[in-house]
Structure of Inositol polyphosphate-related phosphatase domain-containing protein:
Amino acid sequence: MDENDDLLSSLSLGNPQPRPIQVNENHDLFTLTPNELFPDSSSSSSGDENDAVSLHSTSKRLDYMLQFLDRKLSDGNNKNTNNSNNNDKSSNASQGQGQGHRSSLPEFVAKGGGTGIFKVPVRGAVHPSRPPRLEVRPHPLRETQIGCFLRTMATTESQLWAGTECAVRVWNFKDLYSAAGQGDLGDEETVPFRESVCTSAVICLVKDEGSRVVWSGHRDGRIRCWKMESATPIPANPFKEGLSWQAHRGPVLSLVISCYGDLWSGSEGGVIKIWPWEAIEKALSLTTEERHMSSLLVERSYIEPWTQVAVNGFTNILTSDVRYLLSDHSGAKVWSAGYLSFALWDARTRELLKVFSTDGQIENRVDIPSAQDLSVEYVSGSKKDKTQSSFGFFQRSRNAIMGAADAVRRVAVKGAFGDDNRRTEAIVIAVDGMIWTGCTSGLLVQWDRNGNRIQDYHHHSSAVHCFCTFGLRIWVGYASGTVNVLDLEGNLLGGWVAHSSPVIKMAAGAGFIFTLANHGGICGWNITSPGPLDSILRSELAGKEFLYTRIESLKILTGTWNVGQGRASHDSLISWLGSVASTVGVIVVGLQEVEMGAGFLAMSAAKETVGLEGSSVGQWWLDMIGKTLDEGSTFERVGSRQLAGLLIAVWVRNNIRTHVGDVDAAAVPCGFGRAIGNKGAVGLRIRMYGRIMCFVNCHFAAHLEAVNRRNADFDHVYRTMNFCRPNFLNCAAASTSSAVQILRGTHAIGNNSAEGMPELSEADLVIFLGDFNYRLDGISYDEVRDFVSQRCFDWLRERDQLRVEMEAGNVFQGMREADITFPPTYKFERHQAGLAGYDSGEKKRIPAWCDRILYRDSRSASVSECSLECPVVSSISQSLLQLALSNQII
């Protein structure tokens, strides 16, 4: 396409009014009881506020039921209408939900869809390939979680605790089936919870049922104590810690309660401290008047087991960060671990028993003259502080040197990256006393309680992130979002994709295994899963779909323009976008040839390799379009991505902004050996109303005869476009979003597409727009001009290379395009208005429809009702060419 032409296509999402595309949201509550639908106010025990929440929940479900009935009545009417007008196959094929599709355009559907990588993703009222789940906290939009992501989790007998980057949260198990608490942004659908006062980021949590407290370790080096009773009832002000003290200079990386009641903490540099139970018990028993003494009492009571290490003569003790601590209650031992080594301690004497590596190799001992007979008994703070600090400084220095020497030795033997895949990422003890560790490679290692390596297992290729044991089962959480369930012998009982991002923590309680995803969502899985109860619950939930489903209507305006290195006037942008923006909720703009030239392309490629993108000209376009759309007051730009001359950006209306987020960006070069961005694609992936939508702006190979190259460009883009999260420093615009696309899965947290499936295959809606460069075959310049002047487009469409290739199933497989009712978009001369502007120079390029907009929604059949099985149903309501800009480009 040339710089003087642009293409607009309006996709509308939704119904009740004439709104052809629908987005289906699922608000899944594990089970629904009659009391939840029609609560008995007389039985409420939580006060007027809980009554209001219940009434709000009931009102929502009644609204869903009415909407469901309206859809059913509308479907019946439209089926009768369709039966009496079934001669127009193209028109019927475009109808997704009947009502509102009367104004939609007939569509052409490409062959080759529905199979392989072009198969529509499987959706359902209840996910067909995993057990039903309890959503404690649905997946929040990433943009709402900046500075408050959930990072760890623990359970008590009656509560679920989670540590965030700024506080501690508590859910009472008795509230798990309560209506959503209408929380702050990101927690609108979250089960009611309480939150603590603001703290430093929480890194680890451990429960102490005996003392009825929960301990938290923080990034600022403090340990805080939270009383379980302080987290009730739900409606209350933020609760405060009962006790806190400065435990470490660096962050507290791990905590554990030993079988003797001591609190062990680990930090950076191999530092371990033990806080005796006597001091903790005394501090917790102090009266309110004496409370100011408690922190000082505990802070001075610590014991550093380093002293024992020096006397016993271990040379290669843990000098790396103490990432994990584990208590073997039956064996009266404590395990401490870094990424590549373990240490075994006696829980009673606090002596180091054994140090060994991840491959089970025991570290050597050497004889070291005893510096002094250091006591590890509880002593007064001043005397012990002086003794431990003076000795500890020299001992730590020596250990750091020995640790560095050991690292050099390991690298020399195993190679610079030899240990990466063997790095320990998680540790847990099973009910039979066996210890299990998980590695970056997905390897599971079984150890006995004495630190002897027993057996290895490998059930999944992704990195292990966490464990949880309950009864005779071991649950494993992976970086891919997958959860596997094993028996005590390591046999795989089942597995499923639990989350769309890594499972970073698991905990058992109230008959569930709770999983915390990296994106902050929390789900509960029945402890019997996988099992026969799953099918019963799945059937019950599927039958009550109308109680927790709503349909949202949304109109999307997409526009593509090859600007030919020019700059548009404000009036031209008003004519192109501003005149129609008032009726849509989302605007997607794709530009090509924003900047070109060998020097610029080389510089752009170099910037991509170091994670930089964008240009001043690209920013000018974003600013000008934003001004046209009244950005800030009416619309907000949620994402953009530039690759050389390609630029894509998305704006959403402010009134739906809270439902839009998780913006990821991608770029795929296709020019000059798939390395230069003069040809290629840029894309944005966005979550709207809980559904994944991808927008891809392309510029494919030019020239009449290059059909196969264009097909290959599409195939390369579709298969290799991998999205990664934008830079949070510019999250709203996503304009510094990604580095060069490297190997699949190496750059994006939570990449969990099905094995071998492109990421675009997993989207509920995919829209391709851009200068695809497909031409007209077997026709002359003058013939095209004659047909265009008479607006006879039917015969020209038969010569369209893209339609021919789509019909053959060679490109854009399964995608849809509205019937073309506008003149060819290629090629116009600059400053020549109207159809007289077609290229009349020496080359006389044959006019063609180079600029196109195609899409694929969730329909697996030509006519599908919008539902949880088919969550996005779309149609094109308008498709047109704007020629008014031809003489307004600078």
Summary: The mean pLDDT is 80. The chain is about 20% helix and 30% strand.
